[in-house]
Amino acid sequence: MKTASIIKSAATGSIPRSGKLKIFLLVLAFIIIAVTLWYTHDLVNSLSKKEKEVADLYAKSLEYIANEKTTDGDYDFLFTEIINAIDFPVIMTNGHDEPEFPYVTHTKNILIDTTQSKEEQYLFLKELMRKMDRSRPPIKVAYQDTIILNYLHYGESELLVQLRRLPYIELAVAALFILIGYISFSYVKRTEQSNIWVGMARETAHQLGTPISSMLGWVELLKDQSAGDAKATEPLLDMENDLHRLQKIADRFSKIGSKPDLREENITEIITPVIKYFERRIPQLGKKVHLVIESPGSVYARINRELFEWVIENLTKNALDAMENGKGTIAYSISSHGKYSYIDISDTGKGVDIKHRKDVFRPGFSTKKRGWGLGLSLSKRIIESHHGGRLFLKESKSGFKTTFRIKLNT
Cα–Cα distance between 43 and 393 in angstroms, integer? Predict the structure, then answer.
């Protein structure tokens, strides 16, 4: 019942409970990130404001000392305490806004290479001043509000710089954590789904094996008893063919989950019997569909014959179901380019609606009233997981044409 409800929700487009939980966790993660960014931004602004106040106090202290006619030790103490409180880079220039030599004595918290020439040190400080002024305009130190004595250029402390980088580091760590969690969750989910697929397939093969063998034995017994009676033998031969067909299907299911035996096979020789099988049964479906194979000759690829036949059958059934008017053509085009072989299966059916093209390979998705929507999903799994190739929707024109392409290694 649980599997049926999941498939039903996938087919109807509704969001299952697990999907709602993912959305809730994603929204919660964004809220946490937004709150963290806001808090960090507020903290940075507070520290930046504090540093500006210290710089203003430093400049006002210089003005105060310059405008006072007498000085005493208290001024020196205040001046020393303010300077010691500064932990951000400071450049003090003259009234013409030029750095004064020796530059080391007119700067604070700036590493100057004294081995460089005077001109190189000057250019270094001028460039640094320009960078500081982009975010923080310099503070003027004036005498009696008329004569500019100095300009105070100041930047951000190392702590403030690190705090500005912190949100990006947090976002990167959070994104990495979410990515790792998503990949891990997806891997676990795929593993669980794979185990379910394998378990169901092998159990189906096991359950089918015994009655098929028994029925084949009964058919052989009936053939012996009706020897010479053509009317009785002919239906028994058809029954035997159908039982061998069922046995082949059971063998296919038993191979799911195990490493397939890949061999160099002629693709045309594998597809031809499948086409003949459907040509005999299409009239029984009340349809007039023409099957055409286009091949340049012998095209080889490394495949498992039984599993590859299964893929061709699923794609053919899908093409037949797409022809709602019961008429049309299914074309199998085989080609080879470089180290790859291509098989294009085209039909003249109703096409795939553009809004469903991303969902055609999703398990449980189906536009038909009947069916589980597993044929294309299973085919994609066989080609990509067992053969290392690709199966994708190459093109589709609504009401005109649909082409699925298989890409295999030669």
Answer: 52
Q: What pTM was estimated for this model as a whole?
A: 0.51
Domains of the chain by residue range: 35-156, 259-409
The CA distance from 377 to 10, in Å, is 13
Q: How many residues does the chain have?
A: 410
Rounded Cα distance between 112 and 132, Å, is 16
- Contact at 8 Å (CB) between 109 and 89? yes
**Residues 125, 101 contacting (CB under 8 angstroms):** no
pLDDT digits (tens, 9 = 90+) for 114-168: 889 999 999 999 999 999 998 889 999 888 878 888 999 999 888 888 888 888 8
DSSP H or E run through 193: helix 158-225
pLDDT, tens digit (0-9, with 9 covering 90-100), for 260-304 = 788 999 999 999 999 998 988 888 888 889 999 998 878 999 998
Helix or strand holding residue 302 (H, E): strand 300-303
Structure tokens at 120: 């190189």
The class level of CATH for 259-409 reads alpha beta
3-state secondary structure of 335: strand
> Are 346 and 375 in contact, with CB atoms under 8 Å apart?
no
Q: Tell me how far apart the alpha carbons of residues 358 and 58 are, in angstroms, rounded to a whole number.
A: 65
Question: For residue 322, with 0-12 CB atoms within 10 Å meaning exposed, 13-18 middle and 19 or more buried, which class applies?
Answer: buried
